């Protein structure tokens, strides 16, 4: 996904002075600090386990004490109390200790159960007896009504793969991308690394895995995201779209009123832990919810060497941008959440406000869209005190950021495809100054009632934001709704205080920096080529009838499309999640394999149908195997990344790791699944479906592809690349994807006929090899 952009050729320096002993001390210090951060999170999240039947502890005996309670009473300094008081105190202490012991035992048992992953590798529809017993035990220990964070203490830690296994899988992944001499060279580098430096680096990782909850996540957040010095806009942030075919109301303020209210309803449920824990679809297996903690009241603050993510306590307001002005809008009045109609009323006040922006205010947001170092320097110099600091603090501490856009977006006019492309670009970068790209997420409301979301990537991954977005869209339309005129329902308290306009004192030097950042951001936005492909010819329903995984099917189509587009294969990034483990984030699935390239070459070489089908099955099964390995902690790239980080702290160079971390991902892909299917009725109301979301290209000469599988009959693709590269074109690649999808489904269909001139085609295929 967008994270792949920062994971390519990233560099950082560790400069402790002294001898190698001090370098080792630096590595140990970092591991120690990682553990401290991990344990702080555990203490903050320490909750009483809700999985136990509370009725077991409703009554505490105070007359007839068990022997342990009598011993406890004898040990406590309560001899001056009456016998009955001693009995009560000792019984309470004994039952509390017993209760805590039982909680700890149940969590430990559940943790051991959740460490079992063999079920994922079993053939679909054929569950072993061991797995059946395991499922029953997980259900028993999971409880009936767990809260959002109930499973956090029971999730296993991410395991550290062996160096041998990681190196072996890496060499397998690069085989279809290298010739014999290149492969032999990489094999030699890998063998040298495995037999020497690799074991030393592995020791530090194992030490960190014992001490910290997750040996990857904190380093991944810091070095891949927060130390990136390039613009967040396009390079890192991503977006989500509104409903594809429906606009619930054409009134901009009304749409904002309902959805802003829905966002705060979600926050209330989040604070009360009333949101159901996320699970792997169709299973009882819980996923880590740690990323949910920073959805609201969060901002990324720039630094000259590294940024930081700041999270505050719940704020009772949002910040709204409109026509160059920033407004503080309180959504609580005397502790009461404003109704949707009242929020609409307040938003309309902002839309009707004719006051001009302050000097330098209109394009202030461009600082968050440009390079990070100039923004950090400007923030320190011009926003460190006075009115500018107060206004900046107001933005950063807000629940989230809102933009009221004067443009109209969505499927418009006679060319809906082109309008969707403009819609995507608007959500990803806008005018480069009318979004606040440092906020955890920003919501955009367009003039015609369309909406969308732009999210910063360092604090969480797309599924967390998508869960929030699904809830908001569903609540907006199906629960809150609108009256006949398109306004929000309810009454308005006319005594509400007006939204407060933020004040700024922007110096000429700061205005110059704003202009420079805007120039950088505008060049990046102008270079972005984007295409949204809404594929409606068939969907996962037909693919499943061919007994193929929809994700593997799409990935094979992307491999075929890329080969036809560029006549070669490339290193392919598919984002997979590791949220089966505590504080897990993502892992990479290297989708271009020897099996997939063999299939593509066979199909393009005109091989017979049965051979192509067999090779396709082999390639899709290999892809599914790689996906399962990535999900269960046996991926390649995060392990190699952490080994590289340790090597930097130790001050040693590894030619193998250096080459691995510098390889470009020319095809970066990601699927965002629909998580809350129950919120939408895709049978009776198929028009109420989101178009999904997307991100910018990872490599200057590559493609970024996000796909969103909707129901059984639609797949939406969001394709990005750069105009400056003569070898890439988002629309042409979209056409190749469409053709590849049709060719694959035709190949897998029983009615597919044998191609003519088989012998000649086979000869061409061999020649191509």
TrEMBL record:
PANTHER family: CARNITINE O-ACYLTRANSFERASE, CARNITINE O-PALMITOYLTRANSFERASE. It comes from Scophthalmus maximus. Its EC number is 2.3.1.21. SUPFAM superfamilies: CoA-dependent acyltransferases. The active site is at residue 457. It is an enzyme of class 2 (transferase). The keyword Transmembrane helix applies. Pathway: Lipid metabolism; fatty acid beta-oxidation. This is carnitine O-palmitoyltransferase.
